[in-house]
UniProtKB/TrEMBL annotation:
InterPro entries: 6-blade_b-propeller_TolB-like, EGF, EGF-like_Ca-bd_dom, EGF-like_CS, Notch_Cell-Fate_Det. This is EGF-like domain-containing protein. One of its GO terms (molecular function) is calcium ion binding. It comes from the Eukaryota. GO terms for cellular component: plasma membrane; protein-containing complex. Keywords: Disulfide bond, EGF-like domain, Glycoprotein, Membrane, Repeat, Signal, Transmembrane, Transmembrane helix. It comes from Adineta steineri. GO terms for biological process: establishment or maintenance of epithelial cell apical/basal polarity; heterophilic cell-cell adhesion via plasma membrane cell adhesion molecules. PANTHER family: CRUMBS FAMILY MEMBER, DROSOPHILA CRUMBS HOMOLOG.
């Protein structure tokens, strides 16, 4: 998800904000910002950002000034209701789009005449019932007027304390490993996703942790699956499969079985025996032929005995006594 900066402090295209605590969008799609630190309401109009209520440098009556605004609302006519905690007032500002009055509002870079929207110099003020104990409010004076009780701003079990030392009017005391204005930042070593794959995170100190991994996982954050086939060899071309807590040798075909595919079926044993026997017979035959040829050579060259000499002479005589007859064909036309 990408974010877009709409107002930037100290630039020509933005208004400097101080402790903005809320935003609201009206029916026209314009954005209103509660700038509590500067005691004003900022609006994003066609000409950029401008001040519409509680503007510094405008000649308005004190009833139009804000002291500590922290809530904003609109009615069906577009009028603005501002809950001002600092003055204990709810002020209604009526917008007049065709008013002849001219109100000049200050932006971060220029003075803009607000021809599109004007704020009336008069406002309807609602003054709530005053309680004898200023720490409470409401019709029955049973609702705490403390900012800590109303806003409950502190997160992650932070403790809210009312104070006049800052513009917020309260300060959050954060528990260990949490910080920020609202205790919104979590610096605990063990976060919800520190140890993955169902690993259990244990804090060893304020900055270190240790993951106890579930079965079948390892690593600093239990991110690596254990390979149980790392040191396993499956015989007879078997394939090792790494399971959750163990391994399995997947044997090829129906001829092998066993934990490591080391067992052969009876039919395969018979076929292997026959193949080996045939191979032995062929080898023995080749050895005998080679031995016979070597014996003949030894008799001929070392002892002068040639067992096949007589047979060779007889074959030569037969060839001489039976000369080859050449037949020639004579063609007569």
């Amino acid at each position: 998800m990408n974010a877009t900066t709409m107002t930037v402090n100290g630039t020509s295209n933005g208004i400097s904000l101080s402790d903005p605590i809320g935003v609201m969008i009206d029916g026209n799609g314009y954005l209103y910002i509660i700038d509590m630190g500067n005691r004003r309401i900022i609006r994003s109009g066609p000409n950029g950002y401008d001040c519409v209520i509680g503007c510094i440098g405008t000649s308005v009556s004190p009833s139009n000034q804000l002291y500590q605004p922290y809530k904003l609302a609109f009615d069906s006519h577009g009028n603005i209701f501002v809950l001002d905690y600092g003055s204990s007032l709810i002020q209604k500002f009526m917008l007049a789009t065709n008013s002849c009055e001219s109100t000049t509002m200050m932006t971060s870079s220029q003075m803009i005449d607000t021809t599109s929207i004007n704020v009336r110099t008069s406002s309807s003020i609602f003054s709530p019932l005053s309680c004898s104990n200023t720490a409470y409010m409401g019709l029955n004076c049973s609702i705490s007027s403390s900012l800590c009780d109303i806003l409950q701003p502190c997160q992650n079990n932070g403790t809210c304390n009312n104070t006049n030392q800052n513009s917020l009017g309260y300060i959050c005391s954060c528990p260990l490993h949490f910080n920020g204005t609202y205790c919104q930042f979590d610096d605990r070593p063990c976060q919800p996703n520190t140890c993955i794959n169902n690993g259990i995170c244990t804090e060893m100190s304020n900055t270190t942790f240790m993951c106890k991994c579930a079965i079948g996982w390892k690593g600093d954050r239990c991110e690596t699956k254990i390979n149980y086939c790392a040191n396993i060899t499956c015989l007879n071309n078997g394939v090792c499969l790494s399971l959750l807590t163990t391994y399995k040798c997947e044997c090829l075909g129906q001829s092998y079985s066993g934990k490591y595919c080391e067992k052969s079926t009876n039919s395969l044993v018979v076929h292997q025996a026959i193949s080996k026997s045939f191979a032995y017979i062929v080898i023995i035959a080749l050895i005998l032929v080679a031995a016979f040829i070597m014996t003949l050579d030894i008799l001929k060259y070392f002892f002068g005995i040639d067992p096949v000499r007589k047979n060779l002479k007889r074959k030569r005589k037969i060839k001489k006594s039976n000369p080859q007859v050449i037949i020639r064909f004579i063609y007569v036309n």
